[in-house]
């Protein structure tokens, strides 16, 4: 089969067409295009300062097609989990049922679209939905045929029955016409009466044809025997019963007998007096010219093919199909020169050229949904390998990645895409990593959702990055608590230090802590950075002090300095915090502890004198000195009291 | 493909560059605005830093400088976008000629900014404190000998790949040899050293772009020169004792002259499944590889000759643009051109009409056709291509 030549699709941009350049910028799901002028030496020019946003896939914005994406996603995920252990023979019914599920989703979507299209008052919308319906119809038609030929892989005998079902399903206008005829006052005289009867026969719906014929027979008592004969012929036509005991050969013999009988009736002009019955008889005998005279009722070459097989080759083997398909196409389309893309696709299917089917569908249909899901299913059926050793899972993954990437550009459908990427062994993970980073983190909730997806997949770099982005944003917006909790999640020590520093600065400035809940419940996260540890411990000191647990508070305060947890710059604050504890009536700091406090103070003051001016502006020096004096006094008094007290107790 | 909407940018003059932020929510544009009639001062390019570093932009200009901008949110807790504003954090003045490209290094390297200039020098700056963007230290100055026009970092964060960038030259003298050089960081010397020169690219190079690595061992580089070229750089096995830069086996993957003449820009989409290029034919062309790695043009974006004028364009789109000039205050100081910054409207476009390609085979559609429906030309910006844009799996052996 000849390759369909793919010319690149041209998209017109409302911009000047000559003399300028088009600049562009990629976005996550679209491309921005603008008029510009590239020149090495710089540009003068007055272009249009307009930027055009070009999107690739508009289907994903359709609210109805959204259901198609959602529901097929469930089916897809189910398909991926079908046990590998089952021998492939046993899986066939499962694959067929999955295929049917996909098709019923398409049908449901199609019907909904159809309703909207019909009820819409806006012509544009109606056209748009109508077009989507016609594409879904084609998709379903192709899918159904692929199901019959590739997935179900019906053998000779059953094959024709499946094909008949396929044609009946997609040529359902007979039923509507029949209803119209039957509801009329005199059905037998309705102008569509014979059309309906012939259509039934063409589809092999002989029971229904007979019921229609009865209405005519009662009107023409003179021709009763002729009608009776036709009725007998119709009722006697054998159909293969795959579940029955009859072998295909037995059926073939029986069918030939019946065929000869019909042929005899035609030869001895049994129906010569009634042209309608004669036409039906000719159809039953498979007369090609008569069939082709009913092109309007057949409407498509593949209906013609199936009808021709029904009345000429009911035991057609799958391998023979392509021959009949090709000849039927040629016979049926003689007036039309070029087959439509749909014709080529169906023909390729009849030729069992799966690869060509997928390829042509990719070209002809403006969406990846169909090819991705069908190819995935065919790959699970192990059909791609046997047809083409070089492709197979490669092709499956290629198409799934394309489809999922499209979904990812949508503000909510991207979540479905995650599962598709999960089932692409080669590049799925990298694609997910690249795409999920680009999901806009509009809210904390959305960020948590994205984060969870990354965490479940151990995508540590993305987890870190998301937390970092959120922490940075919170910090820029002066939401320190949120910034701290995000940087703890990101395990970003440097950032946690920076934010702890801000908390402490805030405390020094205002005398209170914000986000107490968070700081009080840091737990082991406190160990992420030294400064964070200090922040947590310092807050703990305030808590103990507030709860009047002075002894513990004093011990903690001292340890913050002696264990070098507190930054040197904060020591004066800590010592000042010790003042009220020193002034209590009760002795809280022991003699040893007081010694240590004094040592800290001296260390601090000696440092300050060696590096003058390093700590605060000049005007603060006086207050600073007073503070030191006060501390020294308080410490000395406390030491005295502590020695006395300790001596008393031991004595 | 279809034009979902058109947005009137707050520029009075030609747009030189547009850059989408990381999440595709905002765009930065730069221009040589009406106020500046001379060439000097045109802002060539604008680029966003990774959001891990906050909302940070860098721009480079003909005025020999590059600038770093930061968005500041107002003190109040009111999160209204309008309250934020952009301030210029620093101006990098080391170049003595026009700064032709500016790019942030991959985020795993920290907040690093690279510029290249017409005098052939690549400069790598680092912000040691991400909270203080007014301090940038010049870490590396690499002389490329040829006038530089473009630079691209290899985005791979794999430990197997040391930091690496490619620089292109628009020097049109063919006798100067290869116009694309690859530099790689050497851990031992702590310097960048030339790893490779693409000797086959002898014409002026206007743009260059590394593809996302996708976990592969090799790198893919697209080049805009007199045609579009895609190269594969396969690192050769290194001797364990060798301390020199990696050597690469350079393979050309594809070469397209469909733009007829000069190609000015090349750029990859997020997953590097599509390469876009812009050239003298006035079109943007989209290139795609099928699963057998055969590259093909799958789409063309071209002007239809009906430019929307700035004022009469899209009133709806314009009204949603929250204009806020970025460079305004600085313009007064240095008389240089302006970049503008604005937020595109966030509402989604409604899906457009699509034309069916297949015969409606059943009754359902006949129903539909019975309705008296006239397909109508939709007003702008909902323009549609009636063709499917789908790249195609090639048949074997073709």
TrEMBL record, chain A:
Q: Report the domain of life of the source organism.
A: Eukaryota
Name the Gene Ontology molecular function terms of this record: structural constituent of nuclear pore
According to its UniProt record, where is this protein mainly located? nucleus
Q: Where in the cell is it found?
A: Nucleus, Nuclear pore complex
Which InterPro entries does the protein's record reference? Nucleoporin_Nup85
Is Transport tagged as a keyword? yes
| GO terms for cellular component | nuclear membrane; nuclear pore outer ring
Q: What family does the entry list?
A: Belongs to the nucleoporin Nup85 family.
As for what it does, the entry says:
Functions as a component of the nuclear pore complex (NPC).
**What is the protein's name according to its record?**
Nuclear pore complex protein Nup85
Organism of provenance: Sparus aurata
Automatic annotation (TrEMBL), chain B:
Residue stretches of each WD repeat: 36-70, 256-288
**Gene3D superfamilies listed in its UniProt record:** YVTN repeat-like/Quinoprotein amine dehydrogenase
**For this UniProt entry, what's an example GO CC term?**
kinetochore
User: GO MF terms on file?
Assistant: structural molecule activity
Pfam entry (one): WD40
Q: Which GO terms describe its biological process?
A: cell division; cellular response to amino acid starvation; chromosome segregation; positive regulation of TORC1 signaling; protein transport
Tell me which stretches of the chain form a coiled coil.
none
Location of the protein in the cell? Chromosome, Centromere, Kinetochore; Lysosome membrane; Nucleus, Nuclear pore complex
Keywords assigned by UniProt?
Cell cycle, Cell division, Centromere, Chromosome partition, Kinetochore, Lysosome, Mitosis, mRNA transport, Nuclear pore complex, Nucleus, Protein transport, Repeat, Translocation, Transport, WD repeat
Give the protein's biological function.
Component of the Nup107-160 subcomplex of the nuclear pore complex (NPC). The Nup107-160 subcomplex is required for the assembly of a functional NPC. The Nup107-160 subcomplex is also required for normal kinetochore microtubule attachment, mitotic progression and chromosome segregation. This subunit plays a role in recruitment of the Nup107-160 subcomplex to the kinetochore.
Record-stated family:
Belongs to the WD repeat SEC13 family.
Question: This chain belongs to which protein, by name?
Answer: SEH1-like (S. cerevisiae)
